[in-house]
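Why this split exists: single-chain examples teach little about how molecules sit against one another. For that reason, every record in the complexes split bundles all components of an assembly together and asks for one structure covering all of them. Below is a record exactly as it appears in the raw files.
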Amino acid sequence: MVAIYYVMIVNILYFAIMGLSYRNISTIFRRSKYSSYNTLSGSELVPSVSLLVPAYNEELTIIENVYCLMTLNYPNYEVIVINDGSSDETLSVLISEFKLEKMSNPEIRGTIETNDMRGIYHNPDYPQLFIIDKVNGGKADSLNAGINFSHYPLISSIDADSLLEKDALIRMARMYMENPEEMVAIGGDVRIANGCLIENGAVKKVSLPRKIWPMFQSIEYLKAFLGGRIGWSHINGLVIVSGAFGLFRKDYVIAVGGYRGGYPGEDMNIIIKLHRYMLSHKLPYKVAFCPEAVCWTQAPDSYKIISNQRMRWGRGNLKNMIENRGMLFNPKYKVMGMITMPYNVLFETFNPYFRITGLLALIGYTLLDMTHWRILLTFFLLNFLSGYLLSVGAIILEEIAFRRFKKLSDLWKMLLFSALKFAGYHQLGVIWRVQGHIQYLRKNNSWGAMTRQSWKEESKTA
Amino acid sequence: MPQSVTLQREQKTDVYHNLGERLKETSRELCGIMFLYCSGNPPQLESRVRDFLQHESGLEIEVLKDSSTQTLAILLPGFTLDATHYQALLLKQYLQETMEDADPRITLTVFPGQVDPTPGVLKQMSESTRLSTSSDIHIFTKEEAIQEPGRILIVDNDDTIREFLTIRLKMQGFETLEALDGTSALELIEKWEPDLVLTELNLYGIDGLPFIHQIQQLPVENTPKIVVLTEQRVERTISQCFKNGVDDYVTKPFSPVELDARIHRCFH
């Protein structure tokens, strides 16, 4: 019976959040349609941003990404690529492509502890581009090094395997400028680029991935970002801003001590820390999600890589929850303490255990003839239907506001795969999370393998 | 409707092309030419002009009409510059007397004379007639003529802006090509060697200062002049652009007249 209540509460919460997303979608649609981003992107009044791009063994994609980042529609910004002691040619391809030279006496103003920097490279012909070369220390460490070197009051972390849309940053800045006093972090919408046609560092034609793993992730991302985060953002209860693309106030990031190294999930960690800092200092603040700012990322397309990624996420999530258990049900932390954190612990972190025990119990009951098999069936159907409805809801949100998918066949495909998701992929997700927790308990703390495909190959195979 | 615009443009080019051919055939004989434009497009203007001039001079004159702009081209074979000017004065007086609100604009010259009758020059004369703000008769001189139609490469991601600039610059007798992004623009500059690049700073592929640098480093005989037309209004960027050899910098939203003036200055 507990299982059924659990499922009911989960679904009510999910639907409530999605309801909030729906409430906001028309505002989002209008502001993305009618804002004059072009004018804004040339204005002196837009705050300057430092883009931080941590790169570890990214020789295949880094050039394309840097070109993409250097042609953003934005008045004043710099691109700082942090080479985190790559063992491949990441640094040398950058140096030869942009004819960089080592700066003789770089000024490093930040004071966050990081691993040693080996040098900073620059070419006056590309005044907005800097490359930091440092001893390997992980993603968080690289970001901190970038913060230390950055010149501007806003920072934006961007994964080296992601491409930003030309307007993405200015759209975020527009949101920031609405309320520059209170905005501490803004997250962007991450979408899956597999299958899209990529030219000149920009996504030219949007279509769904061909392979099955990216396909499922595509729907998953759509559901998480549009169905979930718009709603969470509305009640200021976002627990994560995607590491792939987020904008932060540098002063507050430094105030909370920068990114935490040594463990995955640094993107969730920084947000929780920001919430915690702002709430315990009783400062008004907002962590927002900006769905119109789009970042395209490469999704892992093999079982091994995706399982690795998900286990890492599971591990990071558990670690963050344990670290910040003090916020749980603590009224001092308002929405965070009373809703977001409990939600995350109960329905994200412990979700697998409830599901597994619930399932086992139900099967047990049925075998012992304590319940009828019909109840079991109803239970499954209910589960499936609500899940499916959530996916469909996210697809409808997408269609109301953004319409990035131009082909009708893509829509049908999405609807089909939203259903197929429950036959295997969903269950795998649960297992991966448990495996992640096991890794945590075993203190296995590696980042795991992550392979890259050149963007060019990507569009060829698509 | 872009199609219709293009069609009209083609047709108009043909008028000047024919006119140029005609003048070339009779290149040794003297031939006066005047362009007449009356705003508001009064009815039967063409036949009135024809009747008046034939009656007045008793010579074989020829009247051609550019149907897209309603400008008349009047050929006066055998006329010297003074004679053409005299006829123009008479015609102007006649039109002003017979039609109440007529406000004729006339530009004239004589071939062979200061300028060669290329289609570009003829088109330019016709345009200057139509856009003239003074009712005085204007004698077209060498200084005004763009010697060779200048080549301008328009680089912008915005279709509307590109189309607008193309139409406007073509009307003034420039040759134009369009590029959508930085990389294709660089290729075109190398192949086509334009005299001037009119570019946005926000482009796909490559943009901003690196783009300007790349243009200047291309292995072409004459590095094109660069006029930036952009949304970018950050002072630092503007001054950096000038430091890096940009010839002019115009911000959007822009005044077309001002842009024309700045482009023309680059050509002189």
